[in-house]
Amino acid sequence: MEELVQKLADLEEGDVLAMVGAEVENGTDPLEIFDACRRGMVMVGERYEAGEYFVSELMMAAAIFKEVTGILEPAMAGRTAETRGSVVVGTVEGDIHDIGKDLVVGMLQAAGFEVHDLGVDVAPAAFVAKLQETGATILSLSGLMTTSFDPMKATVDALAEAGLRPGVKVMIGGGPVTEKIQAYTGADAWGASAQAAVNLANQWMGG
Amino acid sequence: MSYQESYDLIQKAINVEPVDRVPVVYMGVAFAPRYMGMSIAEFCEDPEAALQVQLDAMDRLDEVAGGLDGANLAGGGKISVALTAIWLSHIDVPGRELPEDSLWQVREEEVMTVDDYDTIVEQGWGAFFMSYLPRVIDMAEFGQSMGWSAANQQRIQRLYREHEYVVVCDAGINVNVPFEPLCGGRSMSQFFLDLYRIPDKVEAAMDVILEETLASIAAYEGEHGIGGTWLGGWRAASALLAPKLWDRFVWPYYLELVDALVAQDIVPVLHWDQDWTRDLGRLKELPAKKCILNPDGMTDLRTFKELVGDHMAVMGDVPATLFAAGTPDDIHAYVRDLVRDVGPTGLILCPGCDAPINTKPENMEAFVEAAHEYGTLV
């Protein structure tokens, strides 16, 4: 399995898919294969943090991981890997951009989180409803425009009005987001990358 | 201030020669209508109103905050059409798909197919471009808008001059590195995967686009003042791409296009959004004092100064976030530090990349005031 971990970390898509297929064929426990790929994704994140990888590598890794889960799902027959926690994700109201949000979704899933993706142009009430429905303790808000700051703030305010704070931690991200905007919106943290979202979620779930 | 005074200042900045005042130019495409009380829907639908409102906003800033030397770009035309042509994407427009007074948005979806790379190679870029456009825009609107722009190009330049404003990008030629339209058409998510999965196919299409673009530059016969043109980069940024991809799919095309533009006495304006810090040292490969780096606040200009020095001028880079969420004091501090660390020579003060729609008016006014306060050297 160590070779599979390495191949995924090196983004060797063809080799990864062939190895996963072969392992399934050989009757290897799909959860073991899944765990190996997840460890490969952890290495991808570490390389990003070290400045060796960039956004393109995160996107490629997330795409390979998605293919892997597609192969493994039938073999898993309803069994699921242990999750680190539950996260609600979406691009805020008035903003239809999804690239950054999708990357966050992919990286969080690969890091072992159960992700509820609400898509783009999501109203504050929809975030509140999903958090109440799922019991998720993390909310990740995305926005690419400076006009997204107010909807981010409105969403954080809506959580407070619904009595969900401080039980739900909120992170925000997207091109123009900075520490100043975190303070403005009342979010708990901000991140400049999808990997930062993973780090924050891990931190909030206890390391 | 007179047109000639402003022109000389900007020209000296491009040449990285000493100035007695750092020039300041306007960039706030969506801010202008909001500042002047025009709906964004009207701004998007009426090319003449879109022109006039930019001049009106600049005149008001001139009056309340001190003089502007000019603008990065001239106003006028339909913004949605211009963006479609750059990104090969459908633009959602206020008053149509979006609320009346909201900002236009690029629809991020995969419209161009993998097979289209082959079509570009087989048919050529120009033919493909025209056959592709109906997928993302109404062709009657496209033709009408292009017609308006062509008919009014000289009048627009004349109007700016009458208002004593220098337009930096007045060359009247549109040039893009092949990366950006392909990325827009395929969608960033798919295009980045294409770079890993089918790199040769992508490169072949890029080479065709490059050849045709070089030919159009060679045929250029326009008249201009400063003679700038955007050679923009958005998703080709260093922070987004692995070095091996950037070295193959981005930088070689910049080298060729810059050389071709400079040979025509056109000033390439590297309008770079996102963070390009990793590759700033490569700018020394471009002809000295012939280009302008036009970043958006995310690229580290202290590193630029250290690595590139007086090889190239900078136009920028007060960040959009600061205009929208900062205070006049924040703007003053940013401009002061920018002039101290990056200028005063080789600097043209400008919002980076664009003062956003929700810029606080007092922040834009503070920007112009600060430019005069910290940029005046004698």
Write structural notes for this entry.
- The complex is a heterodimer of chains A (207) and B (378).
- Chain A is of the alpha/beta class and 207 residues long.
- In chain A, 57% of the residues lie in helices and 12% in strands.
- Chain A is built from nine helices and five strands.
- Chain A has a five-stranded parallel beta sheet, sandwiched between helices.
- The model of chain A has no long low-confidence stretch (mean pLDDT 94).
- Chain B has 17 helices and ten strands.
- In chain B, strand 8, helix 14 and strand 9 form a beta-alpha-beta unit.
- With 378 residues, chain B is of the alpha/beta class.
- Chain B has a single domain, classed as TIM Barrel.
- Classes of the chains: A alpha/beta (207), B alpha/beta (378).
Summarize model confidence as the mean pLDDT of chain B: 96
Order of helices and strands of chain A: HHHHEHEHEHEHEH
| Beta-strand fraction estimate of chain A | 5-15%
Strand content of chain B: 5-15%
| Percent of residues in helices of chain A | 55-70%
- CATH topological fold name of chain B: TIM Barrel
Silhouette of chain B: globular
Spatial strand arrangement across the major sheet of chain A:
2-1-3-4-5
The count of helical stretches of chain B stands at 17
The CATH architecture of chain B comes to Alpha-Beta Barrel
Structural class of chain A, by secondary structure, is alpha/beta
Structural domain tally of chain A: 2
SSE-based structural type of chain B? alpha/beta
- Oligomer description: heterodimer
Largest sheet of chain B: 5 strands, parallel
The side-by-side strand order for the widest beta sheet of chain B comes to: 6-7-8-9-10
- Can you tell me the residue ranges of chain A where pLDDT is under 50 for at least 5 consecutive residues? none
Largest chain-chain contact? Answer: A-B, 28 and 33 residues
Gap between N and C termini of chain A, in Å?
25 Å
What's the β-strand tally of chain A? 5
